Amino acid sequence: MLVLQSVKGYNLFICGPDDEGRRLDRVLKKLLPDIPAGLIYSGLRKGLIRVNEKKSKQSDRLQQGDQIAVRETIIFQAKTSPPPADSGAVYTLKKITVFSNENLLLLNKPAGMLTHGDDSLASLLQSGLDAGAESLSFRPAPLHRLDRNTSGLITASLSIKGAHQFSELMRGRRLKKYYLGICIGGPDKKVKLSDRLQRTEKVTRTLVGAETDDSGNEAVTFAESLIREDGLSLCLFRIETGLTHQIRAQAAAAGFPLAGDVKYGGGRKGFRTFILHSFAISLEDFDEICGFKTCTAPLPPRSQRKAESLFGAEILNKTIEKIKIEINS
Questions:
Q1: Are residues 34 and 7 located together in one domain of the fold?
Q2: Entry pTM
Q3: Which pLDDT does position 1 carry in this prediction?
Q4: How far apart are CA 80 and CA 29, in angstroms?
Q5: Residue 94: in which H helix or E strand, if any?
Q6: Which range is least confidently modeled, 34-38, 61-65, 73-77?
Q7: Is residue 82 part of a domain?
Q8: Count of domains in the chain?
Q9: Among 134, 149, 167, where does a domain finish?
């Protein structure tokens, strides 16, 4: 957000590139989050909010460089200036950043961190980034989600352009998401899991197949065992859809639940919780806006040590390197 100056009882704001083409009322609601919508619309009707010194309608589309003038009596109680970046959040973001350009940020989310809400990845982005400081309406945010106890790659937007492009690639299924997980048992060969899933908030579980009714959503996951040892397997999952608990629920229904995933029948001695890691995101082709074709994130240290203790460090690392090559090819 660029606050130009205060002139004759008005505060002046300059639209940035991420405000281009957006409706005036929607930009104002982002700019003045503490002001009731009715007061904003009233200000527009009365000419107390103007664009380029002209009375404007709520549906007008803004352009980069447009000057919005808002009467100080309207914004007196509005929090129009973002707080300075928090040094601790800056450090944490830098530590977990895998890739970044001017449009997107790919982060290696720790297990135990929420994607949204208090003390989440979303709040970390707000506290640790200055991105969006030159926009009246845009704020960095995660573009998809991971469960609290799932670690690994998650993408955040640093511009409207990046948000739109990545979201369009997801909608068109033109990107692939790969996960690594440790399962009890495992498929004998690569399998396609296709089920209808339905959430039940009563026990916060995802129901599969026969447990669902006709309102369930289609879920498609490909799974294969990479390493087997002592009744456990390191599995590679590729998802074509992204529903809550999709891998956990489908793997359990197929007979190879994640070890330690008590909610889905994967209780096993030696596992405090399950290990599921968003390992790679791969696009069909290099994308100039996104700035990458394939991006991978290493296992968290605790998960790495656990996997090494089960499968051996040498075979584990060779297997992961082989998968990287296959995904990149």
A1: yes
A2: 0.77
A3: 41
A4: 11
A5: helix 87-96
A6: 73-77
A7: no
A8: 3
A9: 167
